[in-house]
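Z., the sequence and structure:
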Amino acid sequence: MSTMPAHVGHERTLVSARSGASIALRGWPPLHAWSTRRRRAVASTIAVLAFAGASGACIVGDPLDVHAARAALEAAQKRNSDARQALERLPALREAAARTPSRALRAGNSADDIHRISQLAAQSGLVLRALEPGAAGGAQAEAFRSIKLTAQGNFAQLRGLLEGLAREPALTVASELAIRRMGTGSSVSATLHAYDALPAVPLAVASASAESRDPFTHAASAGSAEAGWRLAGILQDRQRIVALVETPTGVVTAQAGESIGDARVLEIGPARVVVAAGGTTRALGWTETVK
């Protein structure tokens, strides 16, 4: 067994490597003995490698902000394109503005608003219960006056009032509108806003079927069984829930899935009962009839 120390072997390995490198370089003449062609070739190789390294560093580091300049150029080109398109549309806009008749600014007041709205209500057939001015608001072109309206009539009469407002010289819109069923008619509560600086736009011509469609018709004539029903109470334990429904003939109890007359109870919750009759579904609450 060899007892040569390990560091001696390592030194021999280094000596062998150096000897191999020196043997490999023996074929190379010294630098002062190189030919002009070899010097140029080596210098060109070093220059190419240096240029490639510098180019890669410039691309990655972008010291001259080339990417930012390119993005700014693309944004400027897009803005230029948008500006050209706007200039191309300008003649058409000028022609449209020339065809639009000039309208003098109308300076109205609450008295005029009440007068014209009362006339429109009378023409449409609505019965006014209250009509009074409210608080003004807005600024400049969006300045408006408020008018509070309470009336009674049917849906067709309300539609006539709203269509009449669209024909007024000043834009008058309903910012708040509440319609409640009362017997054979409806109670209408609305807050109207009148804008003097904004012209009204005529409504599109509606079809005959749209004009005759009344969303309250189904509520008024949807089966005699559920008309006038009220939720009288809810009985609930761990296993089931029962609704007490007040009908014109008395108070009846029902569970989900059962029928009351020609109506069927679909769902019973803590505060409402959902019934279906005549192909429609309605919810019955604590203090109101089916809607």
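Residues 66-99 form the longest helix (34 residues). Residues 110-214 form a domain with the Alpha-Beta Plaits fold (CATH 3.30.70.60).

Let me know what you think.
H.
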